[in-house]
Amino acid sequence: MAQIPGEVDNMEGLPATNNNNPAARWESPDRGWEREQPAASTAAASLFECSRIKALADEREAVQKKTFTKWVNSHLARVGCHIADLYADLRDGFVLTRLLEVLSGEQLPRPTRGRMRIHSLENVDKALQFLKEQRVHLENVGSHDIVDGNHRLTLGLVWTIILRFQIQVIKIETEDNRETRSAKDALLLWCQMKTAGYPEVNIQNFTTSWRDGLAFNALIHRHRPDLVDFSKLTKSNANYNLQRAFRTAEQHLGLTRLLDPEDVNMEAPDEKSIITYVVSFYHYFSKMKALAVEGKRIGKVLDQVLEVGKIIERYEELAAELLAWIHRTVGLISNQKFANSLSGVQQQLQAFTAYCTLEKPVKFQEKGNLEVLLFSIQSKLRACNRRLFVPREGCGIWDIDKAWGQLEKAEHEREAALRAELIRQEKLELLAQRFDHKVAMRESWLNENQRLVSQDNFGYELPAVEAAMKKHEAIEADIAAYEERVQGVAELAQALAAEGYYDARRVAAQRDSVLRQWALLTGLVGARRTRLEQNLALQKIFQEMVYMVDWMEEMQVGRTWSPGL
């Protein structure tokens, strides 16, 4: 796997057994029989241990893949790229090139266009060559390994990139300035320094020390105590601690959620995945600290170079721009008019999430910079023994905080309304599916019964016609009982229309079609009854005529034999 000097993974191996001992083979049969059972037991235990190690390795690989995929996407989002499968989407070299450009800030050679294997090999080779130029040691990793989607080496390459561009830059000096640590040790030392003094937090590694979630919450609380109430957290509630820390980091710090609680609260957490996530905390808080320091430095420079009036004008300009953005954004997200379809509402929810994670953090940083700028102005005025600056009405920090509070309230209402509308649209989709299913069943039934009542196979004798009448009456009873189901279709269509279903015209057309077929069926049934009644009356007349003919024949026979009596 790819390595960076100074960062070598800890590998565990299985103890090898020596089966080539001649003395063991020449022992007495009795002694061999005594050892046969323990040998079988040892083999079974060894097989179980091998299976367990493989299962743990597969589990770590799955966690690494998920974590590395999210980490890659968090950086590719800057250039509008996204990957779904880490192994497959890095194979053509395009995404790998964009990722290195984002991380390094340098322009890599233009990728070769084409989808043939040779093009992918060439693009990946360019990326690997760039890493070598950055003095990154790549061990046993070739372009063909990445193009072929080799899981282990692909994960190793991504880990190498993380080490080079995220971890290797970390350097922390100890208090006595006699020792300088780098890479993983420096990150571990930083975590220990930031969590010192927190009860039940003892970070000794990047695996089990993070399982209970207290370490993550301690890091956040150290820098943002307003976001976490550490006193209410307990070591026994690990999943809750992890979930709260990850959600807080994502929602309030804008950090991509690389891990889930089940990835950490396990027997053997993956070290690389936890390091990848923890280093994002380090860079965020280091940047926040650097911004504060930079703001103070800029304030001093401005105090030395610019006039107080120019600094005040700059403050008021930035404050006005930020307030205008806040008011404009509040107006936009307060609009409760949503797309009238499930897919449309889902897109609006995605857009809102992107705003919360991409656009808003930038403005939050501008808000912090304004506070630093105002502090610089007041410091300069104090140094000059002048009256403190009072921002014009509506542009003070308190006004910005109030507007920011309104923004967060509007965001909360927007999210709640979006999710409520999403649930409503999902229910409408289910109702529409139910309507379509019922329409299909009703149309099939109506067509079958229309075909049935269109047949006039009454027979040519009175008993047959009478039997046909009874069967027709049964059909009429069945059709009359089915009317409620037809009305059910109309009621579903009315419910969809009342809720403003986006495809209400199609629903109404299908409803009208069912009702027309129902009217046609009832008309056919009525016409068939009329024909049956006419046929029945005619058959009765024929029957009476037959009776009359028989009676006349009997009378004629009687007259013929009367003279002989």
UniProtKB/TrEMBL annotation:
Xref: CDD domains: CH_SPTBN4_rpt1 (cd21318), CH_SPTBN4_rpt2 (cd21322), SPEC (cd00176)
SMART domains: CH, SPEC
Composition bias, Basic and acidic residues: 27-37
Domain Calponin-homology (CH): 62-166, 181-286
InterPro entries: Actinin_actin-bd_CS, CH_dom, CH_dom_sf, Spectrin/alpha-actinin, Spectrin_repeat
Coiled coil spans: 465-499
PROSITE patterns in the record: ACTININ_1 (PS00019), ACTININ_2 (PS00020), CH (PS50021)
Keywords: Actin-binding, Coiled coil, Repeat
KW Magnesium (keyword) present: no
Organism domain of life: Eukaryota
Listed GO MF terms: actin binding
Region (Disordered) residue spans: 1-38
Protein name per UniProt: Spectrin beta, non-erythrocytic 4
Native source organism of the sequence: Canis lupus familiaris (Dog)
